[in-house]
Design a protein that fits this description.
2 domains, 99 residues, two-stranded antiparallel ribbon
Length: 99
């Protein structure tokens, strides 16, 4: 069975078409990567003030000691500050530690 010259010509045109499509797809991909690179910033390059805006911390009541003073609840997170606060005189101070 001999190859038909017309089939060969169609295969060559289809091959050229596919190569052209892939070439332009690669060009579009590179263009998109350059656009993203110009608009995006690496996290290592952000200043600390910008990094602080990106993060958040969960605040749970069980993470702090709550003291009652003059009718107000005072949540204190530091163990050392809570111990110092507990050592204050009892005048107007309930001294309750909720943990």
């Amino acid at each position: 069975m001999e190859p038909n010259p017309r089939d060969y010509g169609e295969r060559c045109r289809f091959d050229a078409f596919c190569k052209t499509v892939l070439k332009h797809e690669a060009i579009d991909y590179i263009r998109e990567m350059k656009r993203r690179a110009s608009q995006e910033t690496s996290l290592e390059r952000l200043p600390q003030t910008a990094m602080n805006k990106l993060c958040s911390a969960n605040d749970y009541p069980s993470d702090s000691y709550v003291f009652s003073y003059c009718g107000y609840g005072l949540p204190i997170r530091s163990q050392q500050v809570a111990d110092a606060f507990a050592g204050l005189p009892e005048a107007g101070f309930d001294g309750q530690r909720d943990r």
